[in-house]
């Protein structure tokens, strides 16, 4: 049998996993949630969710992947042969496919904004809201940009684990972190930026209620890439000496730092120009910020230009490294399960995603009124079903699987690298307790809330 691929170094392992975690969720969604939900108080709740709920789940996905060194579907088959748990393996592959279809559309928008920022078009726009709507609702342009980012992702995946995913992450993640640092400096140097910082850092505990806590949990899971088998697939390429708990800690720390830094970039900049809290959703990044970039540095126009180019480059890099990690689970599944060549498996995944992604993209224009599924457009349907249903269900199954079904001895053995690493028994007991009780109940609560049950 051919030797299975693996990551070549510990740094590669951390950067690839961090590349998966750091994505549009950090740079775009997190700052909006912080702004709406009580500033520093939300950040505090969020960090608690990451530590108490996110980390144990991430470690669990690592255990499943590294123990079996198999794609997600076959990993469950090996750990629980002949049982219904295998359903989660397939669900993971399926969810990835779903997410990629609409994530690619928004990633395509970031490429468009990078290009129009670079050529100076964004600076000449007079009505940025109109500009965004015109672009996103047109028929061809967004589809072409989406297809281009999908193909970029394709080129990385087709090269395989070490020369594709690992090398790409090792190049892009340091660049991404550098850009973040530069942008924070930029943002802080703008006149009036202190107001934005004050807004972000003022803890408003009165805003924290059960619904805000649930949003923080949901955001933590999405941002850490938990719930479908992305991290499980990456972990199947981890070497046997990789330290699972330490890797998860580093990934969560990088992910959270990038999220908070994105808030430090966006809020001071927006406040310096508008002196009000920015609105939520796509509007923040694609409508409010282009305005900010135009006015930000007064007559020193090239600084505003540089700010916009670096910002959209940051978004694009974050999106691409996440897309790569979402592409790999279905690719690895096709490749190993049906014994295909990597190029064939990759091509199938990319083609389906471009095809379905096209429908998602057109749902902002041509197909806006075509809502065959639950009264939702294609984009909203894919977003809703994957992020609000499949991911939470996946999270619950993963925690129950590792908490109840796998033998504790085996899990301990994997976490301690067969006894080579010291894992305190009490910490292990807390971990198993969280997986068995707290995490499934917490996710169940998010799930019911998202479905509008309460
Ligand atoms: N974590 C990424 C972000 O913040 C998105 C992502 C990548 C993801 N892989 C995932 C979300 C798996 C859930 C599950 O944008």
Summary keywords:
mainly alpha; 454 residues; 0% strand; globular; 19 helices; binds tryptophan; Amino acid/polyamine transporter I
Secondary structure layout plus pairing:
Blueprint: H1 10-21, H2 24-36, H3 40-68, H4 72-79, H5 86-118, H6 121-124, H7 128-137, H8 141-158, H9 161-188, H10 193-201, H11 210-223, H12 230-235, H13 244-274, H14 282-295, H15 301-337, H16 342-362, H17 378-405, H18 408-415, H19 425-450
Helix pairs in contact: 1-9, 1-13, 1-15, 2-11, 2-13, 3-4, 3-11, 3-13, 3-17, 3-19, 4-5, 5-8, 5-15, 5-16, 5-17, 7-14, 8-9, 8-15, 8-16, 9-13, 9-15, 10-13, 11-19, 13-14, 14-15, 15-16, 16-17, 17-19
The protein binds tryptophan.
In brief:
This protein is an all-alpha fold and 454 residues long. The protein contains 19 helices and no strands.
């Amino acid at each position: 049998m051919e030797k299975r691929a693996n990551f070549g170094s510990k740094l590669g392992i951390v950067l690839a996993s961090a590349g998966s975690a750091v994505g549009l969720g950090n740079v775009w969604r997190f700052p909006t949630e912080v702004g709406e939900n009580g500033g520093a108080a939300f950040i505090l709740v969020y960090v608690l969710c990451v530590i108490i709920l996110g980390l144990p789940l991430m470690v669990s996905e690592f255990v499943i992947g590294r123990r079996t060194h198999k794609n997600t579907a076959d990993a469950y088959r090996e750990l629980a042969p002949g049982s219904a748990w295998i359903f989660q393996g397939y669900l993971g592959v399926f969810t990835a496919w779903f997410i990629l279809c609409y994530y690619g559309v928004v990633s395509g928008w970031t490429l468009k904004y990078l290009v129009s920022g670079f050529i100076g078009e964004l600076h000449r726009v007079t009505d940025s809201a109109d500009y965004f709507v015109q672009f996103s609702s047109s028929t061809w342009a967004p589809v072409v940009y989406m297809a281009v980012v999908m193909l970029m992702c394709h080129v990385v995946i087709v090269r395989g684990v070490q020369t594709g995913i690992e090398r790409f992450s090792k190049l892009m993640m340091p660049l991404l972190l550098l850009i973040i640092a530069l942008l924070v400096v930029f943002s802080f140097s703008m006149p009036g930026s202190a107001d934005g910082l004050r807004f972000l850092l003022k803890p408003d505990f009165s805003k924290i209620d059960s619904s805000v806590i649930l949003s923080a949990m949901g955001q933590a899971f999405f941002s850490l890439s938990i719930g479908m088998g992305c991290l499980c697939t990456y972990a199947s390429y981890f070497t046997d000496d990789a330290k699972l708990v330490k890797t998860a800690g580093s990934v969560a720390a990088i992910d959270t730092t990038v999220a908070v830094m994105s808030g430090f970039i966006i809020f001071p900049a927006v406040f310096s120009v508008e002196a009000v809290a920015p609105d939520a959703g796509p509007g923040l990044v694609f409508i409010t910020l282009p305005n900010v970039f135009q006015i930000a540095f007064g007559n020193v126009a090239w600084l505003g230009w540089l700010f916009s180019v670096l910002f959209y480059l940051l978004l694009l890099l974050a999106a691409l490294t996440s897309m790569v990690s979402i592409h790999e689970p279905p690719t690895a599944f096709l490749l190993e399960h049906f014994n295909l060549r990597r190029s064939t498996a990759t091509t199938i995944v990319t083609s389906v995603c471009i095809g379905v992604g096209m429908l998602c993209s057109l749902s902002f224009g041509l197909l806006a009124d075509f809502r065959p599924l639950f009264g939702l457009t294609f984009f909203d349907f894919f977003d809703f079903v994957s992020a609000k249903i499949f991911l939470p269900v996946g999270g619950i199954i993963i925690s129950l699987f590792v908490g109840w079904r796998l033998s504790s001895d085996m899990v301990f053995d994997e976490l301690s690298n067969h006894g080579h690493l010291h894992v305190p028994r009490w910490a292990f007991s807390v971990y198993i307790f969280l997986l068995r009780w707290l995490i499934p109940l917490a996710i169940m609560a998010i799930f019911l809330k998202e479905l509008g049950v309460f």
